[in-house]
């Protein structure tokens, strides 16, 4: 005599095993009591440069006095390595409003805090915070959100920009002379010239990061804003910090729409150690 009840039970068990096997090929899973909970495998989104001649300016607002900032600093260092050779310009601004809370960040500058406040107006973000990352002046993220930041960089690299920027610089003693040419910039745009220290390390003695040795990359040491004429051409003279040297620093230029905050173009000067005083230093541009 056929036991249909037992056959039905067997079929249900086989069906359950088959469903679990199919799920296992697509997702990782964990068993919690009588329930099977499926968890999709987390994958790291890499920065992919699709068709396009775009660029990405990644601005980080950070501070040595902020305990949430070191992971963002580390993320920016990783992104810098991942995007080597691509038109990705990373700038780390150390704000000064953390300085009164136990530790004065040696790289902090009140002007950088003002720049972040301005972004708050442009992007309708209040209050301002650290760590904050802004990509091309258009979108902002918590500075440790690696996947979303990488995705936005990929999107910007795949976009063909309308405006362009070229730089030509020459060092004369303690001054850096900069010639720039921008095309197709909107009316009211300005050119920003940033002096960046490539790497640094600090031993923090007080505040939220007391006792930690912090590493930084692409530290903005000076930011100078210049009027952009209708023809897009002009020049500026930038005073160099005493510790400036060609090997350890970079010069980056940005064209920024002052009505919206959008960055329309970026360029980096090719500073070479063998260039003599007064010799021209040309730029990579996007």
Notes on the protein architecture:
This protein has helices at 4-26, 69-82, 110-123, 146-157; strands spanning 28-32, 35-39, 56-62, 88-94, 132-135, 139-142, 164-172, 175-183, 189-203, 213-227, 233-239, 249-257, 263-269, 280-285. The protein has 286 residues and is an alpha+beta fold. It has an eight-stranded antiparallel β-sheet with strand order 10-9-12-13-14-7-8-11, covered by helices on one side. Strands 4-3-5-6 form a four-stranded mixed β-sheet, sandwiched between helices. The N and C termini lie far apart (81 Å).
Question: What order do the helices and strands come in, and which of them pair?
Answer:
Layout: H1 4-26, E1 28-32, E2 35-39, E3 56-62, H2 69-82, E4 88-94, H3 110-123, E5 132-135, E6 139-142, H4 146-157, E7 164-172, E8 175-183, E9 189-203, E10 213-227, E11 233-239, E12 249-257, E13 263-269, E14 280-285
Parallel strand pairs: 3-4
Antiparallel strand pairs: 1-2, 3-5, 5-6, 7-8, 7-14, 8-11, 9-10, 9-12, 12-13, 13-14
Radius of gyration over alpha carbons? 25 Å
- Bulk shape: globular
Question: What is the overall pLDDT average?
Answer: 84
Q: How much strand?
A: 35-45%
Enumerate the strands of the largest sheet in spatial order, edge to edge or round the barrel: 10-9-12-13-14-7-8-11
Q: Helix and strand string, N-terminal first?
A: HEEEHEHEEHEEEEEEEE
Extract low-pLDDT stretches.
1-43, 273-279
Structural class computed from helices and strand pairing:
alpha+beta
Helical content (DSSP H or I, runs of 4+): 10-25%
Distance between the termini: 81 Å
The helix count comes to: 4
How many strand elements?
Answer: 14
